[in-house]
Amino acid sequence: MKSAAARQYDIAIIGGGLVGASLACALAPLGLKIALAEAVPFKASSQPSYDDRTLALSASSCQILKGLGIWPLLQDNATLIREIHVRELDRPGRVLLSAGELGLDGFGHVVEARVFGAAVMGILPDIENLDILCPASIVSIEPGEDGARIVLDQDGEQEQIEARLVVGADGAHSFIRESLGIESESYDYQQTAVICNITPEHAHQGRAFECFTPSGPFAVMPHVQGRCGLIWCVHTDDADALLDLPDDEFLYAAQQRFGDALGAFVKVGQRSSYALRLVKAHEDIRPGVVIMGNAAHAIHPVGAQGFNLGLRDAAVLAEVLHDEISSGNERPIGSIEVLRRYSQWRAPDHQGTIAQSDGLARLFANPSPLAAAVRTAGLFAHALLPPLRRQLAVKAMGFRGRIPRLALGESLEIEQV
């Protein structure tokens, strides 16, 4: 498949959003030649990954980001989550997860996706073995025995690159997934998340709140400068009306939904929205190809696990490739034997996290009295039984199943012989 006209890479990452850019940082120490292709200019306000969304970074994700060198650029704009308050609208039962009860400082941190994007953009240009191809849209991908050929369109001009391994991190509508005929299942929750920043009257003190409602969760996350990130899930037919409300009417409606735990909501920032769908690929590997992040599993934001799940994908793939290179094996890094190790490692985490988020979203949207009784019983059980709260907190912090070394504070440097 070699062509003199094609630039050669060890790895081509398609998609420079949250997960793709993090993977590029994770692979930097491995001495591989990497291409990162992104269709939207990194500094464009339209970059979908780096918007005003609030990212709740689990404890394991924060540890991974430290290993990637990203965390030092985030920490001044990150807010520690000390408590998580969970309830259901207009029903009994409250659960309080306290980091202090577990002997921890916090469960993780909250940052804006835009701040995360700025931090990553400050690192990528300094990675010596990385070529950033942006803006570059993918025209075609042609798998071969020892990798894949990719045709890119950059400003109307086509260029070919070849890579021993292609990583599709190009979102829920993944071109890579669809081009390779990887089947996926999807479910439309008929919900839309309206997101914005709000300023409450009283200090949040590191408290996060999640209120389950029939139209989806209403979440308030602690933020810098006394602000909070609001994620308000509503029926899709109601989203435009909520977005178009004058600020004072929006704040009043949000106050009615949330209550007075933080006093009055006094200010609201710019609002935006995104539709909520489950997308789950039936495969995440093919010879020479991996799909990860939203390309493999776009999930409901309940529990705020979407990006955390994708970041663990990146950490595991980097570790698998590190171990393969360090072993001295002569197998191609894109061989199905190597990639199967990644897929088998990630499967339990994928299945467990998807089942939890999808199950909660559907359970709390179910109007039947039986479902309501199950929900109330579950909240009371977690409120009364410390072991259940501890188990829930550990999963929320991203420590599910086998843990990648980056999440344990270990590095992936290649030893020089």
Explain the overall architecture.
This protein is an alpha+beta fold. The protein has a domain at 7-70 and 109-186 and 277-407: FAD/NAD(P)-binding domain, CATH 3.50.50. 33% of the residues lie in helices and 30% in strands. The strands form three sheets. Strands 5, 6, 12, 13, 14, 15, 16, 17 and 20 form a nine-stranded mixed beta sheet that branches. Helix 1 runs parallel beside helix 4 (113-123), helix 1 (18-27) runs parallel beside helix 8 (306-327) and helix 8 (306-327) packs antiparallel against helix 9 (336-365). The longest helix is centred in the last third of the chain and has 30 residues, at 336-365.
Which features characterize this protein?
single chain; 417 residues; alpha+beta; FAD/NAD(P)-binding domain; 9-stranded mixed beta sheet; 8-stranded mixed beta sheet; 20 strands; 33% helix
Shape: globular
Number of helices: 11
Radius of gyration: 22 Å
Strand content: 25-35%
* Highest-level CATH class of the domain at 7-70 and 109-186 and 277-407: Alpha Beta
- In the CATH hierarchy, the architecture of the domain at 7-70 and 109-186 and 277-407 is 3-Layer(bba) Sandwich
Low-confidence segments, given as residue ranges, are none
Largest sheet: 9 strands, mixed
Task: Fill in the CATH topology of the domain at 7-70 and 109-186 and 277-407.
Answer: FAD/NAD(P)-binding domain
CATH superfamily of the domain at 7-70 and 109-186 and 277-407: FAD/NAD(P)-binding domain
Distance between the termini: 32 Å
Mean pLDDT: 88
* Structure class: alpha+beta
Kindly state the number of beta strands.
20
